[in-house]
Amino acid sequence: MLIDKEILPKHIVFSLIWLMLCFAAVVPYYEQLNKVALYVLIPFSSVLTFISVSPKIPNKYFIGFGVLYAWVCLSALFAFDAEVAKVELHQILGCFIFSYIIASWAKYPKAALWLYSIYIFLFLGAIYYAHTTILEGSLDSIGRVRVGDETLNANKLAYYTFYLTFALFVMGEIPLPALLHKIFRVLYWLCFPIIIGIAIATGSIQVPVLIIPFAGLLLCIRYWGTKENHKTWHRILLILILVAAFIYIVPKIVELLSESTLGSRIESGGSTEERLTLLKEAWATGLEHPLWGVGPGNFRLFSSPTLFSHNTFVELFANTGFMGMLIYIILATSFSIKCWRDREWHFLLFGLFYIAYQFFYVFYTDLWLMGFWILAMTHEDTTHTYRS
């Protein structure tokens, strides 16, 4: 818009930004390269976005992010430990800048496909790091130990799988030339063996509880949805595949999972007891400091295991008070309600499962996790506008 097309066309600007974000997506596990991405490439991308895209405020969801992060900053004034608060403020600044880039470009239908592809690179980068560094190039230990370390948390790899699943599905819904459309729809089926592999490798209980049902329900929406008139043979084929899966494949997968780390974690309850303790302590901390909380990132100083709560809602309650939690709840529920009203069923399903995922981890301080959320919200809004 503000950049003269003859000097620097908008598609050239976006291509440059896309390349920089793809680089950022694959280097979070390498300290020096990650610093280049966080302190140079992402800020530079935000500047390019600001001077090339109008309006300057992308949409109401970005405003909601701004309100949330403004409240977090305000609560930092009352933090018990200012140094700990500064660390989290640094993280949410990155979230805010990255979300601005994503929200600004996601309103362009042709850009959405490329933005989703960034999360494929994020997933592949995590897999490459896990294979070469954690597993040291060998697959022999998969299933016997959890694939994860201090740099790449095993659960975070599961969250990336959740985003990969939705990204591949949506890429098959975006209007494209017939051949590409079919390719992306076929690629979606690869999610199922990937999900099973991630469940075994990470031992994350959330994978069978959330991601497998999520992926299956997306298929039901695609082939039984009201938006398209699918051929009868498509539905018959899906039914046959599902029947075959339940008869032949599922029992073998269950046996495989039961013999893995995941199976033993399910039997023992995993870290459920510890997380329930954290949940109760975070809630109690929030009740003791309902107005401002104890300060960004400060809850772990009050928890008995000195950990964060693994729950976005109570973490915000403990750290920023009731208002911080309420803002986040409004953001999450308003998106799902809009999807329901717009009859955008796959976005609604994503919104509901996203809410469920907030009970497994803290999302609001991670730029990749928050970036995908605003990508989905902006894309849904754009998709409905164009269809209307």
Structural commentary:
The protein is globular, with a radius of gyration of 21 Å. Helices cover 74% and strands 0% of the residues. It is mostly helical and 388 residues long. The longest helix is centred in the last third of the chain and has 31 residues, at 312-342. The protein folds into two domains: 1-56; 57-387, no CATH class.
Main attributes of the structure:
388 residues, mainly alpha, globular, disordered N terminus
Helix content bin: over 70%
The termini sit apart by 25 Å
| Class from secondary-structure proportions | mainly alpha
Beta fraction: under 5%
Reported for the largest beta sheet, the result is: none
Q: Give the overall shape.
A: globular
The number of helical runs is 16
Which oligomeric form is depicted?
A: single chain
Summarize the structure.
This protein has two domains: 56 residues; 331 residues, no CATH class.
